[in-house]
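Appendix B. Extra example for self-study. Work through it before the problem class; the solution is given directly after the inputs so you can check yourself.
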Amino acid sequence: MRPLGKAASDDDRPLIERVRKGDQDAVRALYERYFDRIYNYVYARLGRAEDAEDLAIDTMTRSLTRLDLFQDQGVAFSSWVYRIAHNATIDHYRRQGRVKLVSLEHAPALQSADPSELAVEQLSNQDLHTAIRDLTDEQQQVLILRFFQDLTAAQVASIMGKTVGAVQALQHRALGSLERALQGRAVN
Amino acid sequence: MTPEVERLERLAERLRAVEPYMPPPGAKIRGWNLVLAAVEQSTRARSRVHPVRRLVLATVAAAALLVVGAVAASADSLPDSVFYPLKGVLENARGALTFGASDQLAFHLELANTRMTEAQAMFARHRVDLADQALSALDDQLNDAALVIQAEKESDPAVGAAMENRLRQAISTHDAQLAGLQAQVTNPTAVNAIMQARDRAAQALQTAGKPANGKGNSSPSPNGQGSGPANSPHPTPKH
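Solution. Structure tokens for the complete assembly:
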């Protein structure tokens, strides 16, 4: 069900040290460990395979050729890679003129829809992906990282530069917004 | 659990069940080739800089090691060592940073001891010329000590007298050592050098005993005929 490989963790350090010493096998190991995850993350954000491929490759290239910068970040390598992917996604949005500035939470509520009538189990993956992409940037990020990438709240907090409590609150709001977005689609 | 929380939890479970998008194999291979090329290029760029950095670092490290090693080596060096001039520089620097009559006296007496050790070593190596220089330097230190005492006596006679007593004891010790040396050497030049050194030491003690305006009579008497300490008569040189 989840062929994304191991969850990001701190045991990347031995590999990173080997990469710094020019060990190509270690470069390959880190690439294998993160490429699918980053591709999946970017695809979930953009919804286009071609863009996801380019941004995933760009993210991995930046991560593995700028390890000297990573040394000073004070975060796990996995968090650093996800941050690079996130920034690449934001840059892509900007180039495409698709920056979302208004949260759906602040959008007019869909009073006609009854959330309890939403048949969650019948929603297609495509419906979910499309609805997620209508959320705010942070809401998309927290849902994708928590549920598509299977990361813990602490890992997501590290990536997003927030506290665990803030991530949990954001996750709750994001699920609520997603539910309303899905309900709105069902009504329309 | 409230109905809202239950609904959101169901939605979360549904999200967890979404199959992940996986990159096509071709994309992964293409990505690896591009990443590998970028990493190799980055490594080459770094290695182009490295030789220069390595050279600079190596030079700095070597220079630092050289300085530290030279300083360490000079501390115990003898007059026939290449490091000996550095020892003099370091001693001068120490002297410039020594303040207070008592500390200055201690400094000069310590250097006098050092010169005595050097003279003994040079005699042992049959380097009479260097031994003679060491003895001259020894007497210079004693004379400097005497001048410090003279000045101190003017400001505080009691302290000056105590310092004079320290100088007297030091000179007495040196004289005993020089007498021992004199008994061991047979070279007339060496004997003469030792006798002159003992004379100059005795004159330094006299200088310390005089008032400050009476100084200036600290030059060594020729041929060891000066007046030495009463308790350290010069022995007749062996021939």
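Self-check: The helical segments of chain B are 3-16, 25-75, 84-96, 101-124, 128-155, 157-184, 188-209. If your reasoning did not lead you there, revisit section 3.
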